[in-house]
């Protein structure tokens, strides 16, 4: 994900795959105005998340290749 992506951009890109409950972009601690280059999109159901993975993983978005996968707690 590019450094200049906004939450609205993220929602727009992922919305065709299902109902989104939340979209978050992770920001730098030292500079909260700068993205760390990744974020999270939460869907209402698992099937929509799987559709987004199949539809977007490896695709280009704002000049960056997307890595789309299920996030797991550390």
Descriptive overview:
- This protein is of the alpha+beta class and 74 residues long.
- The protein has one domain: 2-Layer Sandwich (Alpha-Beta Plaits), CATH 3.30.70.330.
- 26% of the residues lie in helices and 28% in strands.
- The chain has 2 helices and 4 strands, in the order αββαββ.
- It has a two-stranded antiparallel sheet.
- Strand 1 and strand 2 form a beta hairpin.
- It is globular, with a radius of gyration of 12 Å.
- The two termini are 21 Å apart.
- The mean pLDDT is 92.
Largest sheet: 2 strands, antiparallel
SSE succession? HEEHEE
CATH superfamily: RRM (RNA recognition motif) domain
Q: List segments where confidence is low: pLDDT < 50 over at least 5 consecutive residues.
A: none
Strand tally: 4
Radius of gyration: 12 Å
Structural class: alpha+beta
The CATH architecture can be named as 2-Layer Sandwich
Q: How would the global form be characterised?
A: globular
Tell me, rounded to a whole number, the average pLDDT. Answer: 92
């Amino acid at each position: 994900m590019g450094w200049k992506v906004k939450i609205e951009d993220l929602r727009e890109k992922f919305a065709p795959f299902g109902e989104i409950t939340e979209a978050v972009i992770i920001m730098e601690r030292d500079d909260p105005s700068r993205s760390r280059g990744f974020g999270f999109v939460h869907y209402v159901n698992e099937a929509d998340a799987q559709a987004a993975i199949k539809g977007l993983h490896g695709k280009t978005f704002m000049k960056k290749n997307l890595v789309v996968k299920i996030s797991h707690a550390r």
